[in-house]
């Protein structure tokens, strides 16, 4: 997976991080983004902050 790119594990649509196409969310089940194309929940995890203080997120699930 390309750095800075999330891919829906169901429909394989690609989303650059933080562009508004797929938005990171946090709820009682953890970090995730909902695919705006097919509605699939895709898990994320926090990698902490980068040098500029921005939160870095990584997709946990790999597309099949």
Short description:
The protein has 64 residues and is mainly beta. The chain contains no helices and six strands.
Account of the protein in words:
The protein is built from no helices and six strands. It is mainly beta and 64 residues long. The protein has one domain. The strands form two sheets. It has a four-stranded antiparallel beta sheet with strand order 3-4-5-6, with no helix packed on it. A two-stranded antiparallel sheet has the order 1-2. It is globular. The model has no long low-confidence stretch (mean pLDDT 85).
SSE topology:
Elements: E1 5-7, E2 14-16, E3 24-27, E4 30-34, E5 41-49, E6 55-59
Antiparallel strand pairs: 1-2, 3-4, 4-5, 5-6
Continuous helix count: 0
Widest β-sheet, arrangement of strands: 3-4-5-6
Number of strands: 6
Rg, please? 11 Å
Low-pLDDT parts are none
- Quote the average pLDDT: 85
Order of helices and strands: EEEEEE
- By secondary-structure content and strand pairing, the structural class works out as mainly beta
Biggest beta-sheet profile: 4 strands, antiparallel
Termini separation: 12 Å
Q: What proportion of the residues form beta strands (DSSP E)? A: over 45%
């Amino acid at each position: 997976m390309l750095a800075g790119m999330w891919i829906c594990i169901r429909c394989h649509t690609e989303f650059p991080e933080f562009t508004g196409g797929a938005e990171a969310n946090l709820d009682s089940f953890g970090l995730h983004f909902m695919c705006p194309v097919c509605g699939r929940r895709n898990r994320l995890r926090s990698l902490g902050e980068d040098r500029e203080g921005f939160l870095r997120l990584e997709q946990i699930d790999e597309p099949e």
